[in-house]
Amino acid sequence: MLDRVRPPDSDFLVGLLKSEIRPAMGCTELGAAALVAAKAAEVLGTAPDTLRMLVSPNVYKNGISVAIPGTPLKGLAHASALGALIRQSQLGLNILNGVNGPNAAEARRLVQSGRVSVDFDPKAPDPVFLRADASAGSHSASVTICQRHSRIIEIRRDGALLASDTASDLDDDDDLSLSRLAAAPVRDLIRDVLAMDTSALGFLLEAARTNREAATTDFENDESTLGPALRTLTQGQASCNAMVGKVQTMTAAASEARMRGFPVPVYALSGSGNHGITAFVGIDVVAEELGADDERRCRALALASILAIYVKAQTGRLTSYCGCAIAPATGVAAATVYLLDGSVEAMVQAMQSVIGTFSGMLCDGAKLSCAYKVSTVAATAVQFAHLALRDAFVPCGDGIVGRTIEETIRNLGILNDPGMKETDRVILGLLREPTAAA
Predict the structure, then answer these.
(1) 277 closest CA partner among 359, 378, 176
(2) What pTM did the predictor assign?
(3) Do 96 and 230 fall within a single domain?
(4) Which one of 25, 187, 260, 382 has the fewest CB atoms closer than 10 angstroms to its CB?
């Protein structure tokens, strides 16, 4: 495949951004569980008598504790039950948008009765893997999602294969796209993004506006604590501190709204809503604070997004460490340097500081504490941008930070796999048996 890899161009980068930035309601793992269960029920032709979900450890970890939008429910089992009841797979990852009270009550009954179950497969073929096995009467249906949260790769009814996408040209094209991106030197990639025509990037402004609206919802909700508390703490600060404080406040509020299950749509980045919040809200706030026009704001959003995708291309979509602490925060650091009129070298230095500082932050699943992580890394990334402009940064060869930024990001991939596989197994054990952590 390597001989087919070509350097990225503007059209390629715009296409990649559109592919990796998608609207989603609620946690993407919950959306994927609801989606695969809905499709299984549709193939079955009725609501299932039993629904068995088998997912990867990464999906299990991210979906086991997070709230479902607009309901008092949490977790993969309830999301799967809702999907089987709703049976509207055409909605994709937005399938949980507009869940009503009767559906939520019925989903709770299904789970409590033992008719819906979720387990994880330690040998799942990909970090993004979900299979729904549904049965009703004498009939059964099985649907599998793999590699991407909305990619259905196999459909079976009564054991007979109805559709298979495991070797499709689409998969090959996606792999090749990420390979092209991962093969590009970071400094060249930054220059390519900064030279792009922003007329094709208007969708990034919409993504930023949508994700910021989630923060507004959090401020207006009596259940919220983190967003309103941070807003009180940071009011009245000046200059750089005000910018950092506002980034922390707005990203915290947007993520809190999502993690609490408020019915707020967000644009996900590389399959993660919190990635999208970190990058889009973080950079939109910085651009606003600096008075940047739409063209400059677009370019900064594109830079943050492309660099986040670049990191994910090398580390994988789901990781043992906190993805938000690494991929989108790295992009936020570089894009903030750009908005502050800094050099490409300063952008790279700020990126190195983010990775050198946060590479060990654990991912223990999607839940309310993600808002604390998201807001901390987004705000610190902005601070590191300011520091890089003052020649303060984590130097090359310092710990996990390599001799080049490319080597640093490759080190991240090794840290994830095989480095933190045992850590992930321990975390899964604690999540599965919460009393063990008491």
Answers:
(1) 378
(2) 0.87
(3) no
(4) 187
